[in-house]
Amino acid sequence: MSAVLAATALLLAAGCSSGGKDGPGGGKSVTSGGTTPGSPSAPAGEGTRPAKGSVRVVRTVAENLNTPWGLAPLPDGGLLVSSRNDGTIARIDEKSGKKTELGAVPGVSIAGEGGLLGIVLSPGYASDHLVYAYITTDSDNRIVSMLYDAKRPAGNQLGAPNTVFKGIPKGDFHNGGRIAFGPDGMLYASTGETGNRGLAQDRNSLGGKILRMTPEGEPAPGNPFGESPVLSYGHRNVQGLAWDDKQRLFASEFGQDAWDELNAIKPGDDYGWPEAEGKSSNPKYHNPIAQWHTSEASPSGIAYAGGSIWMASLRGERLWRIPLKGTEASAPPQAFLEDTYGRLRTVVPAGGNRLWLTTSNTDGRGGRSTGDDRILEVEVS
Known about the structure:
It contains three helices and 26 strands. By secondary structure, it is mainly beta. The strands form six sheets. It has a five-stranded antiparallel beta sheet, with no helix packed on it. Strands 19, 20, 21, 22 and 23 form a five-stranded antiparallel beta sheet that branches. The radius of gyration is 19 Å and the shape is globular. It comes from Streptomyces colonosanans. This is Glucose sorbosone dehydrogenase.
């Protein structure tokens, strides 16, 4: 292992919708003490976090959003939110809830689970004002960047998209779609295997992978497979990426019929799909640190706060807390907001012990209520 890759492994060591199995939702505010179903993992590493946590919904930030998917807080205030089915990005004033449309992203093809998915700000946003987006086109899934100019008229604030990375397989299902910049300044993307299971184990395919690249879309230095953007493989459909305070990467993954997963990602490792779903006795596969029955989770976005991973669940209609000790769960996962706001899609740190949380009841699989979809501000511990 090269010195660069060794450093990368130390930095990183730390999974789609499940084909129409997601359930209905509701909507009311709540303070939740949580329940504790799930599968604990043996603790390892640094200090143990409290086994029990709490969640308090502070307020509803915005309502009446259509298929919100990606969420990116702006450094000067405001939240950018992508609409999967409209193919647009809007700015939400986090104080008043006012919505201002930036514009539509050209080239987006909306079908099935595809469309305008994850968004993230450039690491150099203060000077370059670039917004990155993961989009489905007529031919593939790809990552584009666009200039955001708030001085231009509403609806015309996005520049023409520049293709950063293309060729990710697309399908009606399992398109992945989360993008994030890591603490190393590299761009990470989660992809699905589009229902073609063999892609997940094919290291020459971009499907069923976590990818790591430069902001310009080139394979990142120190990647485990030479001049390849592939960081890890054997994934079914990853839609959540987050780093803890030790710069270790975690990812949530949709299972098929048995087990959804939370994984600690190690460069070059095989996470088992389709040969393994959930924990396996085969040592060649990297086991999840926690797993859930698909009816309890179907996880999308994740965030790190207060020593725990927080995981938004679609079919499970709840927010999961997974307290960490090193790269293992230190206690059984704990569920909050069960059957309260319906399907939960994206969770993003809001500073301190607060999170931004989006619902996903207008995507054709939820029981839509008055006011859906929403962005919530929640306080966690």
